[in-house]
Amino acid sequence: MKCPYCNEEDTRVIDSRPADDGNSIRRRRQCDKCNKRFTTYERVEAIPLVVIKRDSTREPYDRSKIERGVFRSCHKRPVSVTQINGLVDKVEADIFNLEAREVKSNYIGDLVMKEIEQLDSVAYIRFASVYREFKDVGTFMEELKRFLDKP
């Protein structure tokens, strides 16, 4: 690692510790030539993920879209922020465990549906009503009946 002060290529690590909740490592370094210290951060390089939408357009993966949908569905429900973040973390882990560069939006939606169903039944119906794009009350009632008939 080059020294940012004198551009010497010979620097050494004098301290390492986790940073950002364990998602990166903070390293204190010292230059052997000018003896100045500086900090570097080491992170795992994320695989760029592209989401294929229903209309076949592609866009970069955005965790906040999942969060917004789940938060809206859980509005005024007895679901904590910790539970919601856990749900989003689980869905995101499942997506990245595919190790694919592209993933279909309906796959993501199905993962969210599966997880939110276990979290809160009203939130599930709310999410389903937007995700499944119910065209009329009959379609909505079919989904509600399917949900209520589950063991």
Tell me what the structure shows.
- This protein is an alpha+beta fold and 151 residues long.
- The protein has helices at 63-73, 81-97, 105-119, 121-131, 137-148; strands at residues 11-19, 24-31, 37-43, 50-52, 58-60, 102-104.
- The chain has two domains: 11-43; 50-148.
- The strands form two sheets. It has a three-stranded antiparallel sheet, with no helix packed on it. The protein has a three-stranded mixed sheet with strand order 5-4-6.
- Helix 2 (81-97) runs antiparallel to helix 3.
- The protein is elongated, with a radius of gyration of 23 Å.
Brief write-up:
The protein has 151 residues and is α+β, with helices and mostly antiparallel strands.
Summary tags:
alpha+beta, 151 residues
Describe the largest sheet: 3 strands, antiparallel
Number of helices: 5
Mean pLDDT: 89
Q: Helices and strands: which structural class?
A: alpha+beta
Q: Bin the helical content.
A: 40-55%
Question: What is the ordering of alpha helices and beta strands?
Answer: EEEEEHHEHHH
Unreliable spans are: none
Measured by DSSP, the beta-strand proportion falls in: 15-25%
Count of the separate structural domains = 2
Taking all Cα atoms into account, the compactness measure Rg is: 23 Å
List the helices and strands and how they pair.
Blueprint: E1 11-19, E2 24-31, E3 37-43, E4 50-52, E5 58-60, H1 63-73, H2 81-97, E6 102-104, H3 105-119, H4 121-131, H5 137-148
Parallel strand pairs: 4-6
Antiparallel strand pairs: 1-2, 2-3, 4-5
Helix pairs in contact: 1-2, 1-4, 2-3, 3-4
